[in-house]
Amino acid sequence: MKRFYYMTQSLPSVTGINQDLAAEGIGPNRISVMGRDVAELERAHVHAVSPWDQTDIMHSGFLGAAIGLVVGLLVGLALMAMDPFGVSMNMWAVWIAGAFFLFHGAWFGGLIGLSRRNHHLMRYLTEVERGNYLVMVDADDEDQARRVHRVMTGKHREATMAGEEDGYSPFF
Fold first, then answer.
1. CA distances from residue 135 to 27, 33, 115, 145, 159 in whole angstroms, order as listed
2. Could you report the per-residue pLDDT of 55-67, keeping only the tens digit for each?
3. Three-state SS at 159
4. Disulfide: which of 14, 28, 72, 115 matches 97 by Cβ 3.0-4.6 Å?
5. How far apart are CA 92 and CA 104, in angstroms?
6. Sign (positive/negative) of CA torsion 150, 156, 158, 161?
7. 114 near 64, Cβ under 8 Å?
């Protein structure tokens, strides 16, 4: 997936971008807008970014789960090799320890992610805090990317392209 970032200064520009992209077949589920006042965006019927998008919960939770799984598998293998309770442990010890640490790693990573801003959006936050709007458009394939580019360069020159990410994923 490819994600495009555009900065614009006014709410009418944002609503115009939404309408023109919708006319091109780019639905509202592909467009997210970040501004200082979320209520203002919702009153304008614009898809504002959610707390999932604003925080790093997905990224940190995923990393926590991956680290927890590795630690859990190592703990499970150690339990299986050492027989610490005088009882022979089999592969169930590895599976149970792996699942336990995976879930706790995801939980702990998610808590850390709740306290952090989304690492994809860090470079745009100063402009948003100044009152500008960040419009994020996701394109699944090259055809959608061409349509987004055509609409933005042809009809919305007031919006400047702030960035682009190939292979965008909220997990990485």
1. 14, 5, 23, 15, 9
2. 889 999 999 999 9
3. coil
4. 72
5. 18
6. negative
7. no
User: Which residues face 135 on adjacent strands?
Assistant: 6, 33
Q: What tokens were used for 128?
A: 């948003």
Assigned token pair, 55: 């925080």
Those residues with Cβ within 8 angstroms of residue 36's Cβ, 6 or more apart along the chain or in another chain: 128, 129, 131
pLDDT tens-digit map of 139-153: 888 888 889 999 998
Please check whether residue 64 is in contact with residue 108, taking contact to mean a CB–CB distance below 8 angstroms.
yes
Closest CA to 17 of 129, 137, 163: 137
Amino acid at 136: M
CA distance 42 to 23: 20
Global pTM value = 0.79
According to DSSP, the β-strands at 2-8 and 160-166 are antiparallel
What are the backbone dihedrals phi and psi of residue 138, each rounded to the nearest 5 degrees, phi first? -100, 135
> For 40-90, what is each residue's pLDDT tens digit?
888 888 889 888 888 889 999 999 999 999 999 999 999 888 877 777 778
Torsion of CA 51, 57, 62, 66, to 10 degrees: -160
Distances (CA, A) of 11 to 17, 71, 163: 10, 48, 20
